[in-house]
Amino acid sequence: MKPIVARGSDAEWMPLVEDGVNTAGIDVRVLRFDKATQRPPTFMLKFDAGASSPNHNHPGGEEVYVLEGEVRFGSIQLNEGDYLYRHPGETHSVFSRTGCVMLFMVPEEVEIL
């Protein structure tokens, strides 16, 4: 197997689109796409100031690393350099007051509540 390399100069930010969810002000950059599940388990999200994501569940858990800015995952405040692991089945919403860029590892599809 060949290693997967996502070069910063090749990857583009695109508006995040999720059916039935207001994702205004959220962009995504896919780092790895899994053909078997037809989804990216590894990606980056960029939240503009004031952007939010509604309450949702992570059946397979979630890992997040904040690269820039600040963000709130439910009651947990994260800042640049912070890491968060959520166990499978945990729910939360997301909001960034000032904007942020985050790296995500999400092994299973998110369920919007």
CATH homology superfamily name = Jelly Rolls
**Global shape:** globular
Structural class: mainly beta
Helix percentage: under 10%
The total count of helices amounts to: 0
Count of distinct strands: 10
Task: Estimate the strand proportion.
Answer: over 45%
CATH topology grouping = Jelly Rolls
**What is the mean pLDDT?**
93
Whole-number count of domains = 1
Please compute the radius of gyration using only Cα atoms: 14 Å
Contiguous runs where pLDDT drops below 50 for at least 5 residues: none
The CATH architecture term is Sandwich
Q: What is the CATH C level class, in words? A: Mainly Beta
* Major β-sheet profile: 10 strands, antiparallel
Q: End-to-end span in angstroms?
A: 37 Å
Detailed description of the structure:
This protein is mostly beta strands. It has a single domain, classed as Jelly Rolls (Sandwich), CATH 2.60.120. 0% of the residues lie in helices and 54% in strands. It is built from no helices and ten strands. Strands 1, 2, 3, 4, 5, 6, 7, 8, 9 and 10 form a ten-stranded antiparallel β-sheet that branches. The radius of gyration is 14 Å and the shape is globular. The mean pLDDT is 93.
Entry summary:
By secondary structure, this protein is mostly beta strands.
Question: What are the key terms here?
Answer:
113 residues, mainly beta, Jelly Rolls, 10 strands
